[in-house]
Amino acid sequence: MQVYDAPLRDMRFVLNELHNDDGFGDLPAFEEFTPDLTDAILEEASKFCREVLLPLNRSGDEEGCTHENGAVRTPKGFREAYDQFTEAGWAALASDPEWGGQGLPEAVNKLVEEMICSANLSFSLYPGLTHGGTTAIEGHGSDELKQKWLPKMVSGEWAGTMCLTEPHCGTDLGMLRTKAEPQEDGSFKITGSKIFISSGDHDLTPNIVHLVLARMPDAPKGVKGISLFLVPKFLPNADFEPGDANGVNCAAIEHKMGLKASATCQMNFDGSTGWLVGEPNKGMAAMFTMMNTERVSVGIQGLGVGEAAYQSAVWYAKDRVQGRSLSGTKYPEKAADPIIVHPDVRRMLMTMRAYNEGCRMLSAWVSRALDAQKHSPDADVRAKAEDFTALMTPVVKALFTDLASESANLAVQVYGGHGYIRESGVEQYARDARICQIYEGTNGIQALDLVGRKMGAHFGRNLRSFFHPVSEFIEESKGDGPMEKMIEGLERAFGALQLSTATIAQKGLADPEEAGAAATDYLRLMGLVAMGYCFAKATKVAGLQLFFGTEDKAFYEAKIKTATFYFERILPQATASFLAIKSGKKSMMALADDEF
Amino acid sequence: MQVYDAPLRDMRFVLNELHNDDGFGDLPAFEEFTPDLTDAILEEASKFCREVLLPLNRSGDEEGCTHENGAVRTPKGFREAYDQFTEAGWAALASDPEWGGQGLPEAVNKLVEEMICSANLSFSLYPGLTHGGTTAIEGHGSDELKQKWLPKMVSGEWAGTMCLTEPHCGTDLGMLRTKAEPQEDGSFKITGSKIFISSGDHDLTPNIVHLVLARMPDAPKGVKGISLFLVPKFLPNADFEPGDANGVNCAAIEHKMGLKASATCQMNFDGSTGWLVGEPNKGMAAMFTMMNTERVSVGIQGLGVGEAAYQSAVWYAKDRVQGRSLSGTKYPEKAADPIIVHPDVRRMLMTMRAYNEGCRMLSAWVSRALDAQKHSPDADVRAKAEDFTALMTPVVKALFTDLASESANLAVQVYGGHGYIRESGVEQYARDARICQIYEGTNGIQALDLVGRKMGAHFGRNLRSFFHPVSEFIEESKGDGPMEKMIEGLERAFGALQLSTATIAQKGLADPEEAGAAATDYLRLMGLVAMGYCFAKATKVAGLQLFFGTEDKAFYEAKIKTATFYFERILPQATASFLAIKSGKKSMMALADDEF
Lengths: 596, 596
What we know:
Butyryl-CoA Dehydrogenase, subunit A, domain 2; two-stranded antiparallel ribbon; 19 helices; Diverse_Acyl-CoA_DH (chains A, B); flavoprotein (chains A, B); FAD (chains A, B); EC 1.3.99.41 (chains A, B); flavin adenine dinucleotide binding (chains A, B)
């Protein structure tokens, strides 16, 4: 059964208690967002997700989207839910008040995003893609474009998409062929085909604003000749309401492994009118603005599904009775003990729990940096925050989504045979989560971004934004009795990460394939250290609360237990990653292409 | 695209070259199965799988089984394929000639099984379950039952099933409720409901023979009161052809994550006539005869899917062009290099390859033991072989299927966005493979079987059947120059396994939850060592071939390269498993049930 209640206590912990000393500060811009107010927002969001979005998750998966006579229909209930969503102002939550947004800090907004993704991942893509689009327009569009288009998009009245991929090019956008021909009025005629366009067409909004990568005539070859265009489904009329059709058509929707209530469209642009966003031939920069926002959000998607899978597994593990505890009957009043008593079921539940809590803590840290990078009054803090988010964006995207698939599959395993049946709802989590490892740049591409771009950038400045706080924490926590073993474990894993960094930097300089061969293991190693650091900090915070006395003893005790599990059972994976990195590229590249 | 060609060269390697010194000997019973003959069988099977079964794999997934008016229809083409399958004698391959079988050694048969599962996992279940049924009847049934029923089942004319699970009991069969009331003629009336019955009903054969677990009146409680019954769908008439309906009905079929062309049925038995198989109240023993056969076969299912996923991924990695090699353009004549040049794609392909080759080598070893345990003229060898298969059955089942899911998901990842689209065919492998980790005892149950039953059995005799050859091999290979690093790696991992064994044995004696908490990591560790041993042996065999000169240089060189990859990139996982085992149960069991 799909069970979900937002983990509000843990969310308040990562928002208000864990990262106060991270140097990103309390931002004056967000003074009004007091814990009382953010609490209320989280409560409301939780209610909306549980009552409106969750009940449509399985029915949406069963029904899927349909494509008839060129139009896409979302599953039953999605349109009404979307209306409620925008009417309640959820769509505008994190956007700039200048365009009608509510200016919520990312630190809070990402928690709401997590809830939405837990409740209904497919649904989350409709507002999610719109938000990616508004970010690109805000960051790169002319004032005219902003003033015209952003209010409609920020409110969610019109939706948005990102049109990048073509049949022959996904990762390698240099090969893209969609054309943009300049017109006398300053607009462009866009012609070409795009695939895998999430929310490319649907019935939720009266208009859809596509952000399309295309080439102008005589543009330089490769990625340096790509520009970004705003291309609406319907051209606005004089009142800026949807007017004439703009030659934008959905040719088909994809039949996918999961995420079935999200329409994935093949889009044709047939001389469609569009307007340039940003500078000519600088489309990749604008695209990366969307993409980076989206990459963190895809990480959050993973976390969201992981949490829902965990809760659904816990529910079943308490409900299903089978066998007796190895240490003697625990529930004599029942025909058998609930399977939560069995160590191997515990192993699965605790693993999921540790993944989710670890990712949530890391995500809260990154979200605070996202806020500081935009809103800190201190230029140094802004720069440091930017370094940190640049470094952590690929980690959040790839780590969270890899762990999400693992969690979803563990949930299926907890259900046993019943988990393989669609009716249980858990196999949907495994199918839905699977896409998060792929879109917005596969996780392999994230790893390459980390070692190839982020690791060496500014002579290692990005790295230092993460390494410094970790090594400071280790130094100041040494000799802290109850945490001794944890700090030792963290120090060992951190040492492996530092050594790996040096190895990759050295080898990779002479041979980029060495960096490529190490990339995925290096990203995982960094993720393991980052979660370990968060768990150790959390243990310290919890320990202090327990020492000084708290009404919330159970929460802090459970936090320390989960942290201990993480250190004993999950962090040891760091050794395997380290050894794999150390071995270098040789065995990976030894077979000739035709020997496969 | 689903691509599959049986890896015949590698199959001949594991069959004829790798395990000749394993002590299980060349069996006189199989003298007639010369390499020439087995080659011809493997060639023929390969052709049948590629030409008949593979083309029905994706269409079977799309169409699925249907349940109308109480009858199950398999997807288009399945019936014709099944007819061809039985007519060509594939169904009878491994069965005893006494009942019309062809008496093929398991060592060869398991390779054919692998091919069938690669080509069409859903299809494989129809003959697979029948074979499980014949094994139980052969092992426990009366002569009358055998002579009546086996010929029909061995030929595949009639199919079979195993009816164990009920809605409230899967793992914990002690709770089962299906009743068996004795009749005056010695038969029984069987009444009850079973779920998750693979091939419970279908249109491939005119009759289906169910093997049903049920309780006689006044039977002892729990598993000691369960008996096994043979219950046909139609009662045979005087000519032993299907006669009157026997009150066996399929109430519904399950809608599953994958394996959609295999009918998973809810079966009702309504006073159906059945005959006791084996002794009253000894049904669990008979059930385990089926189950153990099936468990190894489910491992092979995993290997089959893993191989198909690997081949499909290799095909795509050579076909899809995207980006340029980090070490400079490799295919200047193409718009971009095929993605097989990228180290991270290599990582995924090599991982799948190493998993498949490792599992195939281990499976070949176990299959030789299965043959020796039945057919060796030497009682000591038979006993040793039985020890070894008992130990390895849970390892083969759980390890192979865990790795299969990993491989299938890696294949999806190699395809990127295209892999998430059903049309590509690879996401089907991920959905199909997923069930193998669950049915015939979840992989957690396999791990418990290993630590709780197999590890300590006969004062460690089962273990010694594996530990002895490994330690002998390490001793005799030390100082073998080119293999030095490999042997060191194997020795380290084997040391970790021995230490873990001692730890679990010691702690588990005082507290069975300690063994439970270590089980899954211990099984993985043993699997990693077993594959490592096989890869090291293979390297030795290949090295000798290369040293003395061989026409098949490319094969042996590739084998050594894959083995090297295994030792450098995969075996290091053993350390993580070892550390997890060492940490004990405490952090796993620390949260109270209601703290979740």
